[in-house]
Design goal:
With about 400 residues, this protein is an alpha/beta fold. About 25% of the residues lie in helices and about 30% in strands. It folds into three domains: about 5-45 and about 155-230 and about 335-385, FAD/NAD(P)-binding domain; about 50-150, no CATH class; about 230-325, D-Amino Acid Oxidase, subunit A, domain 2 (D-Amino Acid Oxidase, Chain A, domain 2, 2-Layer Sandwich). The protein has seven helices and 19 strands. Strands 3, 4, 5, 6, 12, 13, 14, 15, 16 and 17 form a ten-stranded mixed β-sheet that branches. Strands 1, 2, 7, 8, 9, 10, 11, 18 and 19 form a nine-stranded mixed β-sheet that branches. Helix 1 (about 15-25) runs parallel beside helix 4 and helix 1 (about 15-25) packs across helix 7 (about 360-370). It is elongated, with a radius of gyration of 22 Å. The mean pLDDT is about 95.
């Protein structure tokens, strides 16, 4: 008999989400994280937005947008100290990729999918108010729209979800690296080592590979050998400038290639991101490239030309990795759907999460539990995670 019902590899937002969803059902749950703190990878290096994905409407991915907007509403209710609505401004210029009517149509659909109250949907900012937009470049500006998204500290959110899981009995092993996984009929074994200690064997009925950018590396350690997916790791870089533009977010277009760039408040400073560069090194070695930093600087300077160089000195920079399906399309055109890869369709022993979004981590975790349902005993009566308050 296994020591655990659910063993999770990876202490990012999806790993802790699964830990919460499993432990609240009464399952014996353990989470294994290679670093000495949670959220050391992408879950502390994101754009910090809890959002529906306005631009996914162009890919007709209405179900993903609807899901994310619903998940956003749960987080605003259950973690108001961690997730806060902020006004977002979209300036539309003569040479913008999208015309004012396209932006208006997109925002109308966005509000409809989110079932938002009329005062929380969107509005057009009159020209007389453009001077209040923190020195935004108004040359050739045709229109400015305002709507709302939510912002969070992704690291603190990850820690709060894990604390919730631990309150329901989940175990946490930090600074522990997995070296081998052996799948067996009744239970499986994970061989791992904590710094300075001998190998330890953990047994579990099911194993969740929630390792984010390391997902394929974890699969390589599994016996018998498992199929995998063709994926690309795509790096997103951010820079932080020591200036303040108020508690508002700007949704801009890069002057280089018309990609979306966000400018947003971050602990009294201003954060700008993100980029999309193919990454082929070890996931632990991600760092912003010079060309990425320059790209973000140009985007900021183009839209806020009055800020001098001293105000635009970079205070901090960081990068994270997205897991996307391989392909020849630009990264921002590829599917953002989460893929769940199981070792077998019935009674899976191993499930690997490919992709996923910060906003919809809870929905992803619930989907994982649905896939594992027939592999696990009957759950205990429990509160649904969508009603669970985070502290």
């Amino acid at each position: 008999m296994a020591d655990h019902d659910v063993a999770i590899i990876g202490g990012g937002i999806h790993g802790v989400g699964v830990a919460q969803a499993a432990s609240i059902r009464g399952y014996k749950t353990i989470l294994i994280e290679q670093y000495d703190e949670l959220a050391q990878g992408t879950s502390s290096r994101s754009s910090k937005l809890i959002h529906g994905g306005l631009r996914y409407l162009e890919q007709f991915n209405f179900s993903l947008v609807r899901e994310c907007l619903l998940e956003r509403s749960y987080l605003l209710e259950n973690a108001p100290h961690l997730v806060k609505l902020k006004p977002v401004y979209i300036p539309v210029y003569k040479d913008s990729k999208r015309s004012p009517w396209m932006i208006r149509a997109g925002l109308s659909m966005y509000a409809l999918l989110g079932n938002l109250a009329s005062d929380a949907r969107f509005k057009k900012i009159p020209k007389s108010k453009w001077c209040d937009l923190h020195n935004l470049n108004v040359n050739n500006l045709q229109a400015v729209y305002q709507y709302y998204e939510a912002q969070t500290d992704d690291r603190l959110l990850t820690q709060a979800v894990m604390s919730s899981a631990q309150a329901y009995g989940a175990e946490l092993m930090l600074n522990t690296k997995v070296s081998a996984i052996q799948l067996q009929d009744n239970y499986s074994t994970i061989t791992c080592r904590t710094a300075g200690q001998q190998d330890k064997i953990i047994t579990s009925t099911t194993i969740i590979n929630a390792a984010g950018p390391w997902v394929a590396k974890v699969l390589d350690q599994v016996q018998p050998k498992q199929k995998t997916l063709d994926i690309d790791l795509v790096q997103g870089a951010h820079i932080v400038l020591p200036l303040r533009l108020g508690e508002v977010i700007f949704y801009l277009e890069s002057p280089d290639d018309k990609r979306p760039v966000f400018v947003m408040p971050w602990y009294g400073d201003t954060m700008i991101g993100t980029t999309e560069s193919l990454f082929t090194k070890d996931p632990g070695d991600t760092t912003p490239l010079d060309k990425e930093v320059e790209y973000l600087q140009r985007a900021f300077s183009h839209h806020f030309p009055t800020y001098n160089k001293q105000q635009s000195v970079i205070k901090h920079q960081f990068s994270g990795l997205r897991v996307l399906p391989s392909g020849s399309d630009a990264a921002n055109q590829r599917s953002r759907e989460t893929i769940y890869l199981r070792d077998r369709k019935t009674k899976p022993r191993l499930l690997s999460i490919f992709g996923g979004k910060l906003t919809s981590y809870r929905a992803t975790s619930e989907q994982v539990m649905c896939y594992l349902q027939e592999s696990l005993p009957e759950p205990q009566p429990h509160t649904e995670t969508k009603y669970l308050k985070l502290k």
